[in-house]
Design goal:
Elements lengths: L1 E5 L8 E8 L7 H8 L3 H7 L10 E5 L6 E8 L8 H17 L4 E5 L8 H15 L19 E5 L6 H22 L7 H15 L2 E5 L1 H6 L3 H7 L7 E7 L7 E6 L1 E5 L8 H4 L7 H15 L5 E11 L10 E4 L5 E4 L6 H16 L3 E6 L3 H7 L3 E6 L2 H14 L2 E4 L17 E2 L9 H10 L6 E6 L5 E2 L9 E2 L4 H12 L2
Parallel strand pairs: 1-6, 2-4, 2-5, 5-6, 9-11, 9-14, 10-11, 13-17, 14-18, 15-16
Antiparallel strand pairs: 3-4, 7-8, 8-11, 12-13, 15-18, 19-20
Helix pairs in contact: 3-4, 4-5, 5-10, 6-10, 8-11, 10-15, 11-14, 13-15
The protein binds ligand BES and zinc ion (2 copies).
């Protein structure tokens, strides 16, 4: 979806749909003139309480040729004192969904006037919401392909040229989120570890990242026994992608690590159907790392970054790892592998210690669709955050508040480490057999593989993939984490 600034009057600009954002009981401004041209239809709707400007409320009117736009769409934003940027983002997500439902190709809008937020801020979230909400994954649809809805253009009617920069930023960011959604939505048999590594190379080339792909022989040479253990059951070889962005030698370095299980069948501890059907999403963490690195490079953030993507399938077969096996990790520690479906923490173990040893970053943040327990605890809108570092927790919660991507802290007390102690090796890959505190014991396991670096773990099993559409979210992959962590980096680099 392209975005243009249209420096014209609202009454001269033409489109199939004009979106008018409305704050509850605001002086209606432009709305008065529109209302006038529409013979009081807008005021009537408000008077009759058909439209109350509640957040995300939509109300459409046919203009019957009384305006240069075919239809208008009022979108509610609630009360001014409760207005947030997230509400504006969501409102425009809903507008794009509405435009899609009518197969509208071009819509326009005006910039909301608010005492609380600058036009630049409003533009940024408007474009984010509109572009994210318009996304559809229909590359595998063949019927009536030409009739599928696709919004090509959104015109922002304004004389304010200062917003051009915000538009550019929002396009870079949302393109990255949509790249992640596409990767997560693609079928597992297409997006093998080799395929994702190829995509990572292509994206890196386009965005100016350094990209190194380790193939299986190199992974073997490095003795990443946990990643290799998980890969043993698959006919697809694992890959390990290293992305680097180093704009400034003097700036600090942050490493991101993302779980890249391109399909999680559970392995020998095979999942049942309902637990397995969406498991192509188990590489969401790794794709988010790619999306995030792409964004940081294109926005030229002044901070050094490393992105690591350990990639493999988790499959059952005659050559698969067996419960009771011992895996020797890159760090040298031995894992008693008791459950092949707790595979995410295995590949992360190797990637986390690889990050720490080779890049000596100031901070490490990992993202992983790690546990069903986290989905039970927090649902599908909120990711679990685990860290021992209070400042990092604070900074991530602040970025969450600013970006609208929700995270919530789970306590990573030392006592949870006891749950993953093994009687025959250094650690075991499952905690309490009843699954108690399953998200946290997974975090406690990971903590064994970060020796001294400030580190946070985000369990994104809930919000990475959703069934239902709402506002700017669409069913399937969400791209969760890109906006959160870009916000975190923006806050970090302005410290
Ligand atoms: N990939 C799953 C976790 C998951 C569940 C992601 C639901 C997205 C939605 C992970 O590898 C897994 O299977 N974890 C097990 C761990 C258990 C065996 C200790 C789980 O959560 O059941
Ligand atoms: Zn699993
Ligand atoms: Zn998994």
């Amino acid at each position: 979806m392209d975005i243009e600034i249209l420096n014209r009057s609202l009454f001269e600009a033409k489109s199939q749909l004009l979106v008018l954002p409305v704050i509850e009981s605001q002086e209606y401004g432009e709305l008065n003139e529109v209302n006038h041209k529409l013979n009081n239809a807008v005021k009537d709707a408000i008077k009759d309480k058909e439209f109350e400007a509640k957040p995300n409320q939509l109300y459409s009117l046919n203009t019957l040729n009384n305006l240069s736009h075919k239809k208008i769409l009022l979108v509610g934003l609630g009360k001014e004192e409760d207005l947030t940027l997230e509400k504006i983002r969501q409102a425009y997500g809903s507008c794009s969904k509405y435009a899609n439902s009518l197969k509208i190709k071009h819509y326009s809008t005006i910039l909301l006037k608010s005492k609380k937020f600058k036009p630049e801020e409003i533009t940024q979230v408007l474009v984010e919401g509109a572009r994210l909400g318009s996304y559809q994954f229909n590359k595998f649809k063949t019927k009536d392909k030409d009739k599928l809805s696709k919004i090509n253009l959104l015109s922002i009617i304004t004389s304010n040229k200062e917003i051009a920069h915000s538009i550019k930023k929002a396009i870079i960011l949302t393109d990255s989120v949509l790249l992640v959604r596409d990767l997560v939505n693609n079928p597992a048999s297409l997006k093998t570890p080799t395929y994702i590594a190829e995509i990572a190379k292509k994206v890196s080339k386009e965005s100016g990242l350094k990209c190194t792909v380790l193939q299986k022989p190199q992974i073997e040479k490095l003795k990443m026994g946990a990643l290799l253990g998980v890969a043993k059951g698959s006919t697809q070889p694992p890959t390990f992608v290293i992305l680097e962005y180093r704009p400034n030698k003097k700036a600090k370095t942050i490493a991101f690590v993302g779980k890249g299980i391109t399909f999680d069948s559970g392995g020998i501890n095979l999942k049942p159907w309902d637990g397995m059907k969406d498991m192509r999403d188990d590489m969401a963490g790794a794709s988010t790392v790619l999306g995030l690195m792409r964004t940081a490079a294109l926005l030229r953030l002044n901070i050094n970054l490393v992105g690591l993507m350990p990639l493999t399938e988790n499959m059952p077969s005659g050559s698969a790892m067996k419960p009771g096996d011992i895996l020797t990790t890159y760090s040298g520690k031995n894992i008693e592998m008791l459950h092949s479906d707790a595979e995410g923490r295995l590949i992360l173990a190797d990637a986390l210690s690889f990050a720490e040893k080779n890049f000596k970053p100031d901070k490490i943040i990992d993202l992983a669709t790690l546990t069903g327990a986290c989905v039970i605890a927090l649902g599908t809108n909120i990711a679990g955050l685990m860290s021992k570092n209070k400042d990092l927790v604070k900074d991530l919660l602040k970025a969450s508040e600013d970006s609208g991507e929700r995270i919530w802290e789970l306590p990573l007390y030392d006592e949870f480490k006891k749950e993953v102690e093994s009687s025959i090796a250094d650690v075991k890959n499952i905690g309490n057999p009843k699954g108690y505190a399953g998200a946290i014991t997974a975090g406690a396991f990971l903590s064994e593989f970060v020796e001294k670096t400030t580190w946070a773990h985000l369990d994104i099993a809930g919000p990475a993939f959703i069934e239902d559409a709402s506002h700017y979210l669409t069913p399937g992959g969400t791209g969760f984490g890109v906006r959160l962590l870009i916000q975190f980096l923006l806050n970090e680099s302005s410290k």
